[in-house]
Every structure is written in structure tokens, then in C-alpha cells.
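Sample intake sheet
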Amino acid sequence: MRSKVTMEDGCNAWFDLASSCLSDSLWELAVKHHDTSLSHRTCPWGGHLLKFDSRNLFIQDAPVDPSHLFVRPEVRGQYEGHPVEIPARCKEVSAPGDAMLERRTRMWVVRMAWILFGHCRDEGHGNGNFYDFDTPHTMRHQLRRNFPQKGDASYAGQGCLWLSRPEAGSEPQRFRVVFILRTPHEQRFGRWAMPFISMITDMTHKATLRVLNSRAYQEMRRIDSSFYMVLSMRSFNRGPPMIPYDGEATESFSIAAGQMLGLTLWTRFHAGNQRFHLGKYLQCFMKRLGHKLTTYENLDGRRLVSYQCVVIRDEWEKVKAYFWEAFRIQKAAYRHANGGSSAPTLTQDAQAHVLAPTRDLSRDSNDSEASATTSPLDTSIVRTVVRNTFLELDEGKNVPPMRRTRSDLSGDIISLAV
């Protein structure tokens, strides 16, 4: 039974197909020309899928991490450097790698596809926008890195899907790039069209190579590599970190430090019934200081652990001096309230730790961390070494069973069978 796919969940529908699009099974080969081919198959939500598969593409100055071959949509939408073949304008950013873009499609290879494969009119899924050359359309674009497997990149938007994978056994700059689009009806290639279909297959291969090697795209990769920063908080095991007192909390702590900044009164940060999230804490902290800070809990389609968040680097650079000055006083307030010598610390440019499922996170609950699916990079067993201390676990109803074993390091290992 074919399911109805709306524009809202269209990206997820494409990502569900990603693994099968990198396989040759279920696809019928129509044209093969050197390192490129065109295959087709029935689309699960109606119509037909066309797959342009380009192999052995040489990408000049390719990123060290192959999953960074494609750039995030918001970087594309804000780029104002060298001319690009398909310009776009960013309208809204939901998370790193998830944005609404306004764009036109003017590539002549797409115009040829319009003639050969027909005008898509399924407005519910948004494919009609793909062939509308003159009217700008705003649609959701999403990038997922290391998906469907490590080293891959998946980009969905404008009614199509792009996939990249490093060529196995080849030099690091060689890639396989797959482009999939949907037509609204069962596809049948007439004899008259075969020479043109072979031509457009070759054109798609050349256009892909040209775009990914363009000066504009190389510059966008450079910008994308430092566009965001991951922040991570540690050492707040004696309770949540502190925030400046606003006069409404029932509990406050007065310290001798902070007079020059008017920060002598502090209170604990409470997230209500929700789990502590660093992003919400930093937003609240900076708001009490009179500054606005945008934070994200998702990164390229996966959810970060609760003690990490993502910030826009340029925005963080503008307010970090105010933060560090006040956060130093917060440490004194934390020690005063809880005793001991430990206090929360914040790390910049931290390595991201993800717990994200590979589904749309924009509608997920903030309290779903315990049941979140691990990323493709995570191992199936989480092993924590414990020596002469206790390990505190949030034993919710979804926590998997635990078993205690002896390690070679004279410590206990608690294994969580995920």
C-alpha cells in the first residue's frame, strides 16, 4: 500500500530510501555510459524514481572527512561569494543541516529532464517545484552526514535526493555521487527518447563534477567547516549549574564576588520536569546577562547528548567575553551553594557526541534521550569502566538490562546492551 507523503515529511521519506538507492537491487538499468548510468524503479509513495549514478568522480581538494562533501543548506543559502549555478536564499534555520531555502531551478540539464520525463504536478510532495524554472519556491532542505553509513553524505530537498560515498579502494578524492528524482507516473522510455536519455545521463555526470569542483562550492565547504561550534559542559554532578537571580526563584545564594557586575545573587537552573539541556541553560544564562544566544540540540540530523549543544561560531564570538566573565562568578556561587571544590566547566569546539535517531528530530520530545537510537558511528555496546566509585544511572523504564563483569584493569565494567 502506497503511503501519502506530504511536503513536511518529504525529506524523511527520501532518507528512508537512501540505503536502497546506493544498491543496484530493485533498480532496472536503462542506460550505462562509462562511469555513469541511469536506472529506474517504482516509487513507494507513487510515481517512478530515476537514479543517475556517477562513479569515480574526482573532487579537487576534497574534505578529509568524506561525509563533508556536501555543504549544509543554510551555508548555501547565505553564501555571497563566487557565482553559483543554482542560487538559493536561506529563509529559516531549524538546526544545523536543516533549513528552508528559496531558490529557482535554471540548469539546462533540468530543462531537458522536464521534456523527457514530464512535468511533476504532485504539489503535496513538492515535486512540481523542481521543474518550475521561473518562480522561486521555498522548501525544506536537510543534510545528514555519515548516513546511511560512515563516510556517506545525504542531502534531500527540492523534491530530490543526493547521495555521496567515497569510492572503495580508490584515492581519497574519488567519490560516487547518486542523484534521485521522482516522476509522477510509471516511466516508460520510448525508442525515440533513448539517444536523449543517454545524453542527459552524461550531462548529469558532467554537471555534478562541475558543481562539486567549482570555486563557489569549494569556498562554501571552507565556510561550512567552521560555521558552527559544539559546546560541552562537565563537572556539575552536585546539581544543576547556577544562573543569575531574577527575583522570582524561591531559593537564592549570595556571594562576595560579582559586585562590579551586579551578580552577587545566584539561583539554581531548573528545567522543570524536563532533563537538563545545555542549550536551554545557555539561552537562559545569556538572557539574564542581557544577551541573546541561539543554540541547537541537533547536528546534521542527529541529536546531541544533553550536556552538549551547537552555537553559530560568529554569534558565540560576539558574546563569549560576557559569558566567561559571568561564568567565572557562577563557579564561585556553585561552590558556595554545594560545598567542595568542583564546579561546572564549559569546553569550546568539543567533539560531538550524538544519540540521534535517523528520523525527523524537529518533532521529537526533549525528554527522549534515554530511548534515542544511537548513530551509525556508535558501537552496539556502551562500556563504562568504574574504579572505586559509583556510577549513577537514570534508570528509566526504557533503560536496557545491565550485567556486571570483571575487567583486566582491576575495575568493574557495566555493559549496557543496546
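Comment: Residues 33 and 202 are 7 Å apart (CA to CA). Residues 231-375 form one domain.
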